[in-house]
Structure formats: structure tokens, C-alpha cells
Amino acid sequence: MTLASTIGALDNVQNEAAIAIQKTVFIQQTNQQPAMRDAAEKAVKVL
């Protein structure tokens, strides 16, 4: 294991988290169901 591979792995985790947050925010802002928007808002706060 090298520093580069460790940093690369951390970068991948950060990218995956950012994608999950972006998808959740999209749902929060566009879904027509209030329950889904509320759930997405709670999920964004947790993430």
C-alpha cells in the first residue's frame, strides 16, 4: 500500500459520497411527493 493508493481510495470514497448527495438533493428539489422530499431532506442532513 502506498500513499498514492491510499489517497486515491479516499478520493474515490469522497466522489461516491458527493454523487449520492447530488442525487438526493435532486430528489429533494424535484420529486412531486412531499414524503419523498422530506425524506431526501433528512438524508442530505445525515450525509
Notes on the protein architecture:
- The protein is mainly alpha-helical and 47 residues long.
- The protein has one domain.
- The protein has two helices and no strands.
- The longest helix has 28 residues, at 3-30.
- It is rod-shaped, with a radius of gyration of 15 Å.
Map the helices and strands.
Layout: H1 3-30, H2 34-46
Helix pairs in contact: 1-2
Task: Write a brief caption for the model.
The protein contains two helices and no strands. It is 87% helix and 0% strand.
Q: What order do the SSEs take from the amino end to the carboxyl end, as H and E?
A: HH
Q: Provide the low-confidence segments as ranges.
A: none
When the domains are counted, the total is 1
Characterize the main sheet.
none
Supply the helix-strand structural class. mainly alpha
- Strand content is under 5%
Mean residue pLDDT = 95
Global geometry: rod-shaped
Radius of gyration: 15 Å
Helix percent band = over 70%
Give the N-to-C terminal Cα separation. 28 Å
**What is the tally of beta strands?**
0
Annotation field: number of helices: 2
What would the keywords be for this entry?
single chain, 2 helices, about 45 residues
